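Duplicate of #3305? Posting structure anyway:
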């Protein structure tokens, strides 16, 4: 909280207190709140990417809601005494994914309006930014590359469905792809982080850590 900006301190925190009470009554874990903030942020990016004025307003409001909920995960963690190093990493990664997705959405919206290549170049730079952010989070290039390599595999089913249906990419499809992109990134991060924890904290071999990591990493949500 000591690093909060003006908007967080005087607006987001005032509203997040109300939402934090709701999340506590619902029994949501801090990590679940983080993922909720991530999904709403990705929906904001998808709305902005549509390129219309109304969609831009909707996307901006969703982005603000994502920022407010992002204040809640730490509050829930402190009130329930469930702070964890993984939660901090997940929050950092989710924040950066949302920010980069929003910038990519803005780039795509500008491309739709102006048909220029510069916005697409910026979108590619955003993907590179995701990778570099993951490298900083993991401290290694390998795990970050594995997370990024998983993303095309996660999109195969959706791309195949669009092609077989024969329709052009719609707003609904765009929302689905961006949301799937974020969820696949989050799942990859959770699995790799848990595998590394099993190796370092419990002395498991790589084979044991992979088997247990696949089964245990998504438990407790």
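Output from current build:
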């Amino acid at each position: 909280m000591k690093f909060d900006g003006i908007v967080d301190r005087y607006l987001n925190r005032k509203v997040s207190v109300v939402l934090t009470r709701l999340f506590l009554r619902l029994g949501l874990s801090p990590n679940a709140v983080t993922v909720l903030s991530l999904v709403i942020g990705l929906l904001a990016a998808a709305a902005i990417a549509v390129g219309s004025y109304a969609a831009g307003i909707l996307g901006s409001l969703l982005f603000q809601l994502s920022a407010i909920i992002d204040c809640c995960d730490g509050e829930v963690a402190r009130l329930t005494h469930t702070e964890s190093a993984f939660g901090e990493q997940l929050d950092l990664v989710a924040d950066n994914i949302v920010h980069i997705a929003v910038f990519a959405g803005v780039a795509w919206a500008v491309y739709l309006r102006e048909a220029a290549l510069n916005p697409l170049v910026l979108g590619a730079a955003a993907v590179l930014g995701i990778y570099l952010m993951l490298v900083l989070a993991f401290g290694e290039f390998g795990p970050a590359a594995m997370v990024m390599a998983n993303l095309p595999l996660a999109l195969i089913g959706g791309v195949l469905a669009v092609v077989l249906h024969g329709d052009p990419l719609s707003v609904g499809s765009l929302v689905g792809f961006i949301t799937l992109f974020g969820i696949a990134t989050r799942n990859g991060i959770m699995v790799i982080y848990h595998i590394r924890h099993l190796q370092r904290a419990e002395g498991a071999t790589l084979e044991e850590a992979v088997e247990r990591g696949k089964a245990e990493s998504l438990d407790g949500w």
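Confirmed duplicate; merging threads. The longest helix spans residues 171-202. The chain has one domain: 6-216.
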